[in-house]
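Sample pair:
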Amino acid sequence: MAGLDGHADAVIEQSLAGPSLPEKTMPYGSAAFWITIAGISALFGALHGYLLNDGPSPVGILYGTCIGVLTIAYERGVFFSGYSRRLRRLPTLAYFAAAEVSLLLIILAGMALTGSVVWTLGLTDKSFPEAVTPKLSTIPYALVVSALLVSALRVRDLIGAETFANLIVGRYHRPISEERVFLFLDLVGSTTYAERRGDLAAQELLKAVFSAIAEPVRRHRGQVDDYVGDQVIISWPFARGVEKARCVACVFAIREALRSDREVWVSRFGIVPELRAALHGGNVVTAEVGVDRHKIAYFGDVMNATARLEGLCRNAGKPVLISDVVFARLPALPDGIEAEALGSHLLRGRSEAMVVHALAEQRVRKAVEQSKAYAGSEAEHASAALALAARVR
């Protein structure tokens, strides 16, 4: 952790006042996501007709769809994202009050906007002022429905979209065996950083690193399964992970995301985060566990082996390692990435050896080789000079 002592100790204050890393916003969602939201909102619009009117109507369904989509678009940061971020910095009670008022205003705006569309299309006999004026009897219903949708999405964001879907459909109520690829990421030097800067500063660093990791994982269709201290566990169904070498591409996309903001990381935290990465896969037993708090958990030797492989990164001096189990099933490595066979290694706590490969960007490998060549050349020159001096004497 060279260079840490040259920075002020108040890292938390620096992180608040210093340059900002690029904002990592939540994803807007795929087309399928918005179609689902529109469909659910339309159903609630139809339900409103059953409960409060003589039955569902096309206009009521249109109102439900527009208000639901607009509310979720605001929640996902499609618009007013800066305002939403500022709200989240408020004290808890103030945040809840401001969030509810904001949600109400969005709903009223959605009602007025939908009313103007309905009036423009000639779908109502009301005058324009009547069409754009929200009905008082509808506002509480819209608030409750919107709050339910927003809460469900926040739970989805908290535990992950794939885990949320699996819990909803009950896929893992009974344990099943499946093949998965696992990526274990470990932040290098986090313990030393915490000892020098304190736990709060270390937490700020971890929060920023985990935020930076999220987008590359989404882009390569991975799933963040857990955060354990300074370690992140990411996984894919095996076929998806090896297809187009997604699991490998994800590792180097994460490394590039951290490296590209080098100056800001140094300014805020005094370091550029570095990660050790281990890729391994195979059969695991996947099950829903817990009573008061449910989660999807993985069981099997693959999990222990991946953790041991990540530990080998430190001993081998290689930041990215991949087991032959995964490497052999890759169609090809991503462009610019090359592998180095390291042979069989007996990992701690395991009786069977594992065939391991190191992965690196070609330019990094070349730089290392040039550095070694330069060091060797310097050593040769030094030896020649010593021999010459001995002959002169």
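The beta strands are 176-187, 223-228, 231-237, 275-289, 295-299, 320-323, 337-345, 354-361.
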